Each structure stands twice: as C-alpha cells, then as structure tokens.
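#struct-help
A.M.: can someone run this one for me? Single chain, 386 residues.
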Amino acid sequence: MPQSNIQYTKLRWSLTIVGLFLYVVDIWTDIGLALKYFQEKHFVWAGLTLMFVLAGLLVTQMFSHAWYRDDMNDVLMNPEGKAAISGMSKGGLAVLHLFGVGIFARYYHLLKQGFKVVWTTTNSYTVDERRDVHHMLFCLATDLSMLKLFEAFLESVPQLLLQLYIVLGHNECSAMQYLSMVFSFFNIAWALVDYRRCLRRSLPHVREMPSGLPTAVYLLYKLCTITSHILSYTLLLLLSTYSTIALTVLWLLGTTWTHMLQTKFCSSRGLELLYRAVIGVILTFTFFNVKGQDTKVAMIIYYSFYCVINVTAPLLLAFLKPELQTDTFFLTVSGLIYGGSVLGLVCLVLYYLLLHPREWGREADEVDGLGNETQTTRRMRNFLQP
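D.P.: on it. Structure tokens below:
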C-alpha cells in the first residue's frame, strides 16, 4: 500500500527557502551577539556563544561530508560509479566542508533540482521516472533535515539556555540577545517539524504525518517539554554554576544508553561514537527513540525524571534563595515551567493515543522499495524516531 502523497510540491520547495533563512539568521544573530559580548569585555560569554556556533557547524560538516562519500559508493544514488556526486569531486567536497559551507551546498542542489522538477518540468516523465525523481528530492531533503536536527540541538538549544541564564541571572538585556533567543526558538521548532515530516516521507513502511492537528499537537508537545526543561536547567544554573556538572552527567547517561543500544548509523567506528555523543546531547533535552523500536517503558522512565527535574528546580531556588519568592521573573519562569510541563505531557498523551500515524505491518519487498533502499533511507531507518 503506497503512501498517500510522495510528491515534492511547490510548497515544499518554498518551505525549504524558509528553513534556509532561519538557519542563516540564527547563526548570524549568534555571531553578532558574540561580537557584542567581546566588545563589552564579557569574554567568557563571547567564547561560550561562539563555541556553540562552532560545535554545530563542525559536527554537521563532518556528517555531511561522510554522507556524500557514502552516497558515492551507493549503486542506487551513483549507479555509474562516478568519482563525483551532485557535480562535486571528492576534493571539491572536502574543500567545501572544510570551509563550513557543505550545508549550503546541499541547500543549493536541493533548491536547484527541486526548481527544475516542480516549476519547469513538463509531463515528459513516465510514472516511474517521476516517482524516482521525487524520491531523489526527498532523499536530499531528508539528509538536510537530519543535519538541521543536529545543528538545532548542538547550537540553538544550548544557545537558548546560555542566553536565558545571562538575561535572567545577570540583568544583561539587549535587542541582540532577544533576537538570538527568538531565532534559536524558531530554528528549533522548524528543525523538529521538518525532521518529523521527512522521517515519515522517507520510510516506506510508515504512514506520513498528516498536516493540521497532528502536526500542531506534536510540535506543541516537543516545544513545551523542551522549553520547560531549558527553563528548569536555567534556574539550576542560577542556583549554582556547578549545575553544569549535573548536565554533564545527564549527557553521559544519554550517551551511555545510546552506546548500550549498539546503534549502527554510521559507516565508520569513529563517526558512530561521535553520533552517540550527539544523541546524548539531544536526550539531555528531549526524548527520541534511538533505534526505532517500541520504547514505551523508556519514554515513561525518561519523562518521570523530566518531571522530577522540572518540579524540583523552582522549589530548590525558592528554598535556597527565599528573597526570590516574590520576584516577578521567578514567579513567571516557574509558571512557564509548570504550565509548559503539564501542557507538553498532555499533548504527548493525546498525540500518541489519538493522532500518531501507525505503521503498516507489512514485509519489505522490491515493489515498495524496502528491499532496494538508498543510503539515505538506511540512514533515516537507523536514525532517531520520535
């Protein structure tokens, strides 16, 4: 049974430009903020702000380059065995990623190929050829969605945590800080939804996520739980900067759990270890099914700890710093934490009970494409499942 709609549409092409805009503006506002901190001689804040930007850029370039190399060796993506892919040689790919523009090269090729298909192509394609062309476009979009998810949790999420800590704890408020936080928030939201939709488009045995209410409830669940968690971490950092040790422990626990599951996402051992470390960062802020298996018990355990942290953080700050109990910002942040936690968990239950697209329990076969999958499909099948 085929998926309902596997067409790469004009709307999808246009939304790719929106994703590129958010990606660029998020990075540039963070760089501008780092320069502002440097000029004001806040060297630690400037260094941390730049560190998160560089971490996101470096890791995404490494994975992007490795995936291009994998695609070169894929008989479906590169049937003629050319020493180039997307018009780039191995040397050209290395140079592009060395200078940190590998993601922009992916955006360029997706927009270029997509424009030819959805805006200028006539009906000269056969049904099979049209299906293959649209599948190729979704492969390009899928790789981008995974890289954007990495970037969001390595750069935008910790950046939001850092700037909230500075604004709330040091009364350092500026337009640039608010711009940085706003675009980090929108970049996170966009990465979550784009990844979710690309995931379900790329796995033939999974129903596509419907637009409208299911997407809205899923987005609300993720944003509320992640935002309330970030605010809780912020209060813990305000209580003591040594709370960074606790965050490091949480990252190590997530990384260790991922390692124990023996993920098989990357083609090299070193890159697989880096992947597990990145997943540890993601698990510090939100839950993902690391191997696409039934993880109802793991999710219950995860969100039980999530509730403990979110309930405890405001109470600890109120108990250890009683002068804040009547402070407007403290009461506002506490209300956002508790309200966001409740709303997020309610949306989680509603989504998985009533709105979650269920898998079709069927075997893989050549017609459906599971027995003859591309490198991108293999990556997505072994990547994070919401």
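A.M.: thanks! The first helix runs from residue 10 to 39.
D.P.: also worth noting: The beta strands are 84-85, 88-89.
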